[in-house]
């Protein structure tokens, strides 16, 4: 498929190469990692299984390249990023095709992801020039007991080598959201893409290669997590880790020593619906928020907490909308496509069966074929059901009926996650009070949770992460402050 045209050099036979030191390489391991198409459940692509030695070399060349890159003028770094963004958008079709085959993302959403990624890279270039072009100047006599004999200059300098680990659900967008800020800030980057999504990521990296970045500045190593995962995250040559994903992030944070971390982990995003809410707006947002990309988003609506008095009406409205969702292969642009792996589908089924056993109301019949699960709305869900607390990462949405706003807030805050939440009401005062009370990184008022626009701050509390993302925050996080103090001689006479 992508063995022709500009992407010809990234594949060798039927195995996609890894990228290091400015070129496409075959691993000395002689092994490959298979990528299973979620729709056909057959091997669709193969990527190189890199060795620890190859990872070492990639990090070594990243360290060397970074030293020179840090001296490269900001405007030049920005120019290359703009170039990469243009190439990425120009080749959106083959990259989107990989997303359809590797992660069963509906075709139109796959194209949107690539275009959004190009826009993100361009914005990084602009924002980086603004942020990093400014320093700070302090004078010493602003602190008690001091004369004006010291001038302090502060600027932002790069951290060094940034390790970027994006998840399967946005393997291109969540890779560039780490690469763009790292590169403009003067860092080098080692990308470890998810297995499913690796081929789309390799295509994206090739667009950066074509833009003409210095060799060694960007690497993309593929392979088994068991072989190179811990080796990468605990590598002494890594100066920063930006990770998006699930529980693995907690393990990484325990093992990585003295390295700045940017982590966006799971979510159980709650949607609180008040009695005065516009129910048509709520239904549209819950269906979009709960079921787009088959619910495989950390910002998906994961639980709807609905006031009892409007629950019946709202559930009916949601049910009518769910009935209109198309189910099938991603090539046909269906709303609901197969979930990523068989083990994911089995996990989702486990949550559904637990809810059935404990008496939840099924608004549709539960249906599954292979990795494809039909959308399911569960009403009258109670706190003793696993679906109340666990993140399904699939097209299954629980509705919990509540009798007070306090009850809704209590449920939301009892979760060990705190990524996003939303509240629907026409009363702005109530909305603000509820937002203040919800222990989540972001609260959306009258809209489903969402990560974008990509320059908005994006962060999670509790088990949902460390640090804050969004282009501006990522650039700041991937730099450190450097201070230079000029000490003036104490004047022996008064001038002037």
UniProtKB/TrEMBL annotation:
It is found in: Cytoplasm. Transmembrane segments: none annotated. Pfam families: Aldedh. Residues 24-483 form the Aldehyde dehydrogenase domain. Keywords: Cytoplasm, NADP, Oxidoreductase. Its EC number is 1.2.1.9. GO terms for molecular function: glyceraldehyde-3-phosphate dehydrogenase (NADP+) (non-phosphorylating) activity; lactaldehyde dehydrogenase (NAD+) activity. One of its GO terms (cellular component) is cytoplasm. InterPro entries: Ald_DH/histidinol_DH (IPR016161), Ald_DH_C (IPR016163), Ald_DH_CS_CYS (IPR016160), Ald_DH_CS_GLU (IPR029510), Ald_DH_N (IPR016162), Aldehyde_DH_dom (IPR015590), ALDH-related_metabolic_enz (IPR051020). It is an enzyme of class 1 (oxidoreductase). Belongs to the aldehyde dehydrogenase family. This is NADP-dependent glyceraldehyde-3-phosphate dehydrogenase. It comes from Medicago truncatula.
